[in-house]
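Input set for joint prediction.
Command: fold jointly, output tokens.
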Amino acid sequence: MILTRTGFSIYGGLCFGIIAGVIFIKHRSIPVIPMLDATAPSIMLGYGIGRLGCQLSGDGDWGIAANMTLKPNWLPDWLWAQTYDGNIAGLIMTPPGVYPTPIYEIGMALGAAGVLWTLRFHKHRPGYLFSLFLLFAGFERIVIEKIRVNVRYDVFGAYVTQAEAISFLLIIAGLAAILTTLRTKRFWTKVVVLAGVLTALAACAPR
Amino acid sequence: MSYPYVTDSLNTVLGTHWHLPIPTFGVMVAIAVATATYIATRLVRSYESLGRLPAQTHSTVWDMAIVSNSRRDYRRQSLRYL
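tokens >
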């Protein structure tokens, strides 16, 4: 891995890495769900650092052509558009360039890792922290796919990227797990969580 | 500006013209794995003290990160066959 210039699919690594990890810890007779909770903040942090690698190396994980007319005045230009001179693909971009999506992903991943770390001693059932991780990972990617360059596929009439489809599954799995692990006697708390997540998902859904 | 190789960033900072085939992305992934494993080990230790995980679980975190067996366990398994 250290000898390749190009990136690799984060979701392949995430899914099969977690499956391999679960098999490994079951083999060692360690409780799986508390272990997943313990690793959730670090996976998100690692993802953020990995995206820093994407940004520095210019491996092609950038966004669509930036629209400078939408840029807020207070925001520096490099946070809105970059040309990635000397990138791995050898592409030459005309100024102003493309949205630097890895920078946005670094911000979101570090923010999510911070939230997960803050909630590490939660009072809910085991698995709650990992459920939140699934939710954050799904939302982070489904939001960034709006402005990212990726191939779209026809899935039941909706044109979605592979990452959007996987993110959708992650969000649904995370939501189901949160409702299962949330320790509350108030039924309405769960209803509000369910409604909030589904509303956010509907807002982010590809059109 | 992109820096596909580690030496690209060094050349920009130092004004040199070195070239070593060490990709920036691979180095960042290695840093990500090492940092994440360190943080996970810390949290596993905390969970051990709270009783959420059995004692000494933290010793397996590095093994899990690189998916390997520690030498100690390898030796224990080897002794089992004697």
